[in-house]
Design brief:
The protein is α+β, with helices and mostly antiparallel strands. Helices cover about 75% and strands about 10% of the residues. Strands 1-2-3-4 form a 4-stranded mixed β-sheet, with helices on both faces. It is rod-shaped, with a radius of gyration of 59 Å.
């Protein structure tokens, strides 16, 4: 802007100088010696000087006015550029904020969706478990009712017979038969039979169930230095889980109220120590009216896993 202004002013000054030179030259060439001393000569020179001065001022005025307009336009253009740049920056900032807010909302929605899915899965599992429990209870009730009906029908169909006279020899034979039958019937109690039915369903497929096994056979013999070996020989384990190679993976004890006595507690503690030394995990379960298959399955898996962790 300044270079253009200087260039315009220089041109204007050159023009004024040429005009003054031409004017004075005309005055001197046109004027005669006779007319030089007259009033017209002085008047014309005075007019020419005034005109030149006026022309100079006019030219300077118009030049300044033009420069001011040009400066205003440049300022306006710069202000427009600044406003455009500021608007672009503001747009970028707003776009970044909008993107950040959108990302945060998307993450929140994803987290809520995952929580909802997790809650739905847990609810569905709980509903399935409850449905299975109800189905089992109904099946058990139906089986009990059917058994009661059968017993009633059998009692109704069987004729009533009077007992025959019994000789001493027959009485002895019958007593021996009763003893043998009681021994066979009392090998497992009713609570142990219920637990065995649940255990066969809850155990892993690659394991087999054995019951009433001697403790000595489970731990592989009595270790040296043990006291009261006879009592150890009399001990047994209620249930054991064995793999295809005959290795004992888990021992299970079914505890009822009789295990709360001091003698039985000492006996149980000794049994626990012997199994722990043999690195055989032991699972103790209290006697109940009914057993949950899924709970028993989890307990068995946890005990077997704990054995592998200890071996590592």
């Amino acid at each position: 802007m300044t270079k253009k202004r200087k260039y315009n002013l220089e041109n204007e000054v050159i023009k004024l100088i040429t005009m003054l030179g031409v004017g004075f030259s005309l005055i001197f060439f046109l004027g005669n010696k006779e007319t030089q001393e007259t009033i017209i000569y002085y008047v014309t020179t005075f007019i020419i000087i005034i005109l030149t001065i006026a022309a100079v001022f006019l030219i300077y005025y118009f030049c300044n006015k033009h420069d001011k307009k040009y400066e205003k336009k440049i300022q306006e253009a710069n202000e427009r550029k600044k406003t455009i740049i500021e608007q672009q920056k503001a747009r970028k900032i707003t776009e970044q904020r909008i993107r950040q807010q959108a990302e945060i909302r998307a993450r929140q929605q994803a987290e809520q969706f995952e929580r909802q899915q997790w809650a739905k899965e847990r609810i569905e599992q709980w509903i399935r478990q409850q449905a299975e429990k109800l189905a089992r209870e109904k099946i058990e009730q139906w089986e009990k009712e059917q058994a009661e009906k059968r017993t009633k029908e059998q009692t109704q169909q069987q004729p009533i017979l009077l007992p025959a006279p019994i000789t001493p020899k027959a009485a002895q034979q019958k007593a021996q038969e009763n003893d043998t039958n009681n021994y066979k019937k009392n090998l497992l109690s009713n609570a142990e039979i219920d637990f065995l039915n649940c255990l066969t369903k809850a155990k892993p497929k690659n394991l087999h169930v054995n019951y009433k096994t001697r403790l000595v056979d489970v731990i592989g013999g009595i270790p040296d230095g043990t006291k009261n070996k006879e009592s150890i020989l009399m001990m047994h384990v209620d249930f054991i889980l064995v793999d295809y190679f005959g290795n004992v993976t888990l021992a299970i004890e079914l505890d009822d109220s009789s295990h709360d006595t001091p003698d039985n507690r000492k006996r149980d503690n000794r049994k626990d120590e012997m199994l722990q030394k043999a690195n055989i995990p032991l699972l103790r379960i209290h006697v109940r009216k009914s057993y949950d298959e899924f709970y028993l399955k989890k307990e068995i898996e946890n005990k077997i896993k704990s054995r592998f962790i200890q071996d590592e």
